[in-house]
Amino acid sequence: MANVKDVNKSGGSQWLSAINIAGQTVQIDFPTVDGIQIAGAQAHPSHEVATHSNVISAKFFAENKRVISGHIHLNGTIDYSARARSGGVAGPSSGSPGQSKSSGSGLTWQTNEQTNHAEWWDGTKWVEGNWSGEHQKWYAYYNGQEHYW
After folding, report:
1. 41 by DSSP, 3-state: which?
2. Highest mean pLDDT: which range of 10-14, 109-113, 137-141, 145-149
3. Is the pTM of this model over 0.90?
4. Helices H, strands E: what count in the chain?
5. Cα angle, residue 31 at apex, residues 28 and 33 outer, rounded to 5°
6. Is the N or C terminus of the chain more exposed, i.e. has fewer CB atoms within 10 Å?
7. Hey, which residues does 128 pair with through a beta bridge?
C-alpha cells in the first residue's frame, strides 16, 4: 500500500483513503474477504467509464482464494468485475444466485428472467433499471446519482 502513496504523488493519500473505503464496501458485500491485492499501484484511466476517470485495480481474497476483483475510484466507490455483476461468484451476503451489489452504492441488482432487463431493489420492491445507450450498461438513479451495473 505504501507504493500507492508514493507512485500517485500528491494524490497518494487520497487513493489510500479510497482503497480503505472500497475495502469496507467489499467486506459488507462479501463478508468472507480477508485480504486485498492492489494490481499495480499507479492509478490508470478506466476503459469502462465514459469519462475514463482514473481507477486502481484490486483483487480481494478469502483464505488466499480470489473472491472478487474490481476498479476503485478516487471517491471510494468500486465497480465489481463483470463476473460478479453476472452472478458468477458467491454474491453479496443477502443476495441469491443471479443477484449482485456494485459500485459501493449498496444496491442489489438482478436480471428479470421474463423481460431480460436489470432490476434493482429500492428497499421495498424491485425497480426496473434504465439502459444507457452511451455507456452500454444498466443503471439506477438513486440518491441523486446514477449507479451502473
Report:
1. coil
2. 10-14
3. no
4. 3, 12
5. 110
6. N
7. 119
Bridge partner list, 28? none
Tell me the HSE value of 82 on the side-chain side, using a 13 A CA sphere: 2
Q: Which of 3, 34, 38 is nearest to 19 (CA)?
A: 38
Written as nine digits, the cell of 42 is 499507479
Place of cell 484490486: 58
In whole angstroms, give the CA distance from residue 102 to residue 149.
Answer: 6
Burial 25-63 (b: 16+ CB within 10 A, else e): bbeebbeebeebebeebebeebeebeeeebbbbbebbee
Residue-wise pLDDT for 12-57, tens only, equals 899 999 999 988 888 888 888 889 999 888 888 877 666 668 899 9
Closest CA to 67 of 98, 108, 104, 23: 23
Higher-confidence residue: 82 or 115? 115
Q: What is the pLDDT of residues 62-92, one digit of tens each?
A: 888 888 888 898 888 888 876 554 444 433 3
